[in-house]
Design a protein that fits this description.
Layout (H helix, E strand, L loop, with lengths): L2 H17 L44 E3 L7 E10 L2 E9 L7 E3 L7 E6 L2 E5 L14 E3 L6 E7 L1 E2 L5 H6 L4 E8 L19 E7 L3
Parallel strand pairs: 1-11
Antiparallel strand pairs: 2-3, 3-8, 4-7, 5-6, 5-10, 6-9, 10-11
């Protein structure tokens, strides 16, 4: 075989190797492709996937923090009542800032009541028969001057929970009210609209007899 034929076969082999990406024919001066960096993990699932159903036996999914007196928008339970087979909690949303306002209804998670035992959901409010939105425009409540007050009721227990046990052992149960942490008229304490997590603020009280 002539030298010219050998050179021709080598060229064909190199061309085939290049077509199939074989490393053995790569140039020594070529750097390997950089590895794709792993995606950064967020603290919670995107809101579109974060369906907060509060299933029986579950805890409250993070991000969540108890409301404190230092919060610009504060949530507190002011009274609990246990009568027949229902637990009613009165709550208050207010602010130490006299100019603070609350956009109502609260979204994406409005004030929601749960009954918990050792941190796990054992009771809830029965869901509304209709999930339709009434279409009313949002209201601006001046909570810095006039606290917003309302009440919610636990009237549905999870399997295994028992009203009579709650009456005899109320110290084992807590009433929890939670809602989305709110932006304020000052520095933003809630997420901007483009942020997908739904951080919650909570208030709790021991079940009263």
């Amino acid at each position: 075989m002539t030298d010219q034929s050998v050179r021709g076969l080598l060229c064909v082999a190199v061309a085939v190797a290049a077509a199939f990406g074989l490393a053995g024919c790569a140039s020594h001066g070529t750097k390997p492709a950089a590895a794709t960096p792993p995606q950064q993990q967020t603290t919670s699932a995107p809101q579109v996937f974060q369906h907060r159903s509060y299933a029986c036996g579950s805890g409250i999914a993070p991000p969540v923090a108890a409301s404190t007196l230092g919060d610009p928008v504060r949530l507190a339970i002011t009274k609990t009542e246990f009568s027949d087979n229902r637990i009613t909690a009165t709550f208050k949303i207010d602010s130490a800032n006299p100019t603070e306002v609350l956009t109502y209804p609260v979204s994406p998670t409005p004030p929601t009541i749960l009954l918990t035992e050792a941190g796990h959901v054992v009771g809830r409010q029965k869901p509304l028969k209709s999930g339709a939105v009434d279409g009313s425009p949002a209201e601006m409540r001046p909570i810095g001057r006039h606290p917003y007050t309302s009440s919610l009721t636990v009237d549905e227990l999870c399997p295994g929970a028992d009203w009579s046990h709650m009456r005899s052992h109320p110290d084992q149960y807590r009433v929890e009210i939670l809602m989305s942490r709110q932006p304020t008229s000052g520095p933003q304490t809630g997420p901007p609209a483009t942020y997908l997590a739904d951080p919650l603020t909570t208030a709790s009280a021991q079940l009263a007899r």
